[in-house]
Amino acid sequence: MSGSALSARGVNKSFGSLVVAADVNIDLPPGVRYALIGPNGAGKTTLINLMTGMLRPDSGRIVLGDEDITALPPEERVRRGLVRTYQINSLFPHLSALESVTLAVCERRRVAPTWWRPLTAYRYEIEEAHAILVRLALGPVCHRRTRELAYGQQRLLEIALALASKPKVLLLDEPAASVPREESRELFEAIAGLSRDITVLFIEHDMELVFRFASRIIVLVGGSVLMEGTPAEIAADARVRAVYLGEAHRVAVHG
Amino acid sequence: MTSETLAAAASAAPAGPNEFLRAQARWRWSEIAFWLATLLPFVLTPDYLILASQVAITALFALSLDLILGFSGIVSLGHAAYFGVGAYTAGLISVWGWGEPLTGLLAAGLAAGIVGYITSFVIARFRHLALIMITLGFCLLLQEAANDANWLTGGFNGLQGIQTWKLLGIFDFDLYGYTAYAYALAGLFVIFLVARRIIHSPFGLALRGIRENSARMPAIGAPILSHIRTIYTIAAIIAGIAGAMLTQTTETASLESLGFQRSADVLVMLIVGGTGRLYGGLIGAAVYMVARDQFSGLNPQFWYFWIGLLLIAIVMFLPNGILGGLELLARRLKVWP
């Protein structure tokens, strides 16, 4: 239809009197690196929840490629290539990294319901999972239980799990949340190195990272889109400065 | 993914990812020792083979609960419902004139599986406390229905006139329980192999995923409702087969087979033995039933005092059950696996 990888059209959502999404219209062209920014409570995570089906909008539509997915449950959206990660690690603590990613690959390839063949017969799935972990520098620790991994490694495992679903559109909810600055840059380098076939939208508070890794930025305030544009346009916009950037903007320009 | 990257990835791994997973599924010497030990009652305690057969049947029942509770995180306080459906199915078939044990098992497994599949649609949508109440409610409901259907089940008096034919047309179910124990043990072993295969399959991995973080599963594209329905149905089939074995080896079927008490007992056994380990239910059933046999010989009414004490002690000091405690001990002594 519009050629967008993912779009939200007139999406509204309220919890009682609290409006968390007000007539949100977003179009993500294929292959673009988008940042979603906005002050705390602007509804950034809610928007990801609405697009991935964890929440149902009160009105409006979510369109993936040229398919209306508004009524689909989360797992069906994942199977169509709309994949997310979580701000707070949501992993499988007692599974090893390799088992976790293998599970995600098995689900994608629809072999997870198979109970009569041993897992080790699925060499392709295991090796694909392993290759993803190696690419994200998790190869050496892939046999460790998730709970035993360092925090930064767990953040990478979040991304590895998402990649195992072969996303067309990847929504990253603060991928570097609580990661030390040096490591968060490495994490974003890994994200920047993803295939250009994947459209990426990430939530991030660190303006330096936003301006460095996003080709376009959406500013969300009070549940509605304040502005959408290139980093230069966003940085130059007086409204954006007023409601949000302030101090952080100066850091980005001078720091 | 190109084949080059795959090859590079495979060579980069120290032992190879596949080999590592394979090693986890390998048979350990402790497992082989366990199964050899199950043959000991034939020589060491031939007077207790009837008890041994009931231990094996109960162990099978506990194994079926472990598949849903231990591996998938689905709590049930009404699992005896499926045991009872199997017990009555085998009993009724016999009363109606067909006492062949193996086909009786199949029929019982089928009946319990159908009931399990139907109920799984409700079960899959709930978790935790709600699930405990729903499973308990279903179990009580079924027991009361069986009580009420006097014409079919014999009601309070149990099903009368069950006769089990010779096993394979050769082995009579004798008074000493040789055939009964061999039959129950063989059934337990075969189904254990199936259960072991399930947990080491892609589906088994998905079940562990549900147990570990069911909220994350949809985000990796997993249809968890359908996964839960499948394992719940499998567990119901196994419970039904266990129930049928009890009917066939004791030639009775009573309301006790599908009551709350049996549901609670099997849960206690599994927790005492250790959940999510396949062997926990087996060990728990053996400990529980042998202890009950010994203690109730001293004072039948007082038996639950000791069970209560045992349960509290286990949960306080060995949160992973007897088996979890043994694993910890073995790791300390560095003799595992």
Question: What does it look like?
Answer:
The complex is a heterodimer of chains A (255) and B (337). Chain A is α/β, with parallel strands linked by helices and 255 residues long. Chain A has helices spanning 44-52, 74-79, 97-108, 123-135, 151-164, 181-192, 207-213, 231-236, 238-245, 247-254, and strands spanning 6-15, 18-28, 33-37, 59-64, 67-68, 82-84, 169-173, 199-203, 216-221, 224-229. In chain A, the strands form two sheets. A six-stranded mixed beta sheet of chain A has the order 6-7-8-3-9-10, sandwiched between helices. In chain A, strands 2-1-4-5 form a four-stranded antiparallel beta sheet, with helices on one face. In chain A, a hairpin with a 2-residue loop joins strand 1 (6-15) and strand 2. The longest helix of chain A is centred in the middle third of the chain and has 14 residues, at 151-164. With 337 residues, chain B is mostly helical. Chain B has one domain (28-333). Chain B has 16 helices and no strands. In chain B, helix 5 (49-72) packs parallel to helix 10 (178-199), helix 6 (80-95) runs antiparallel to helix 7 and helix 10 packs antiparallel against helix 12. Chain B is globular and about 60 Å long. Chain B starts with a helix and ends with a helix. Residues 1-14 of chain B have low confidence and may be disordered. The interface between A and B is large, with 52 and 41 residues.
Summarize the structure.
Chain A has 255 residues and is an alpha/beta fold. Chain A has helices at residues 44-52, 74-79, 97-108, 123-135, 151-164, 181-192, 207-213, 231-236, 238-245, 247-254, and strands at 6-15, 18-28, 33-37, 59-64, 67-68, 82-84, 169-173, 199-203, 216-221, 224-229.
Blueprint (SSEs and pairs):
The complex is a heterodimer of chains A (255) and B (337).
Chain A lengths: L5 E10 L2 E11 L4 E5 L6 H9 L6 E6 L2 E2 L5 H6 L2 E3 L12 H12 L14 H13 L15 H14 L4 E5 L7 H12 L6 E5 L3 H7 L2 E6 L2 E6 L1 H6 L1 H8 L1 H8 L1
Parallel strand pairs in A: 3-8, 3-9, 6-7, 7-8
Antiparallel strand pairs in A: 1-2, 1-4, 4-5, 9-10
Helix pairs in contact in A: 3-4, 3-5, 4-5, 7-10
Chain B lengths: L2 H10 L4 H9 L3 H9 L2 H5 L4 H24 L7 H16 L5 H23 L4 H21 L1 H4 L24 H22 L2 H12 L10 H27 L9 H14 L6 H19 L4 H15 L3 H13 L4
Helix pairs in contact in B: 5-10, 5-12, 5-13, 5-14, 6-7, 6-12, 7-12, 10-12, 11-12, 13-14, 13-16
